[in-house]
Amino acid sequence: MERRRISGGRLRSAEYHEKDGVLEIEFLDYSLKRFQSVPIEVWRRLLSAPNPATYYEDRIEEEYPVETAAHRVDESARSRLDSLFGPPPGPDGADPSGQSGRG
Known about the structure:
five-stranded antiparallel beta sheet; alpha+beta; 5 strands
């Protein structure tokens, strides 16, 4: 099944695997939680809830076994930040461009 965008609160998206009954929730910080043994009706209600974040907190968060998964990584985020602010400082705090910032 495809990942669906969810707006509201700290939720970013969700995906349900009907075969396994696994509901995967992605948060705004790109962290993931996988909830086990979730009935499909809970997935349907999450998608149709007026406030999915509240439904998640009330009906999912502490009701089903969960495993915390690795953060999803937005591969383009680093390049977008570097184009705005330049590359991050080196490990010793030195400017990677070699400029001292004094002039």
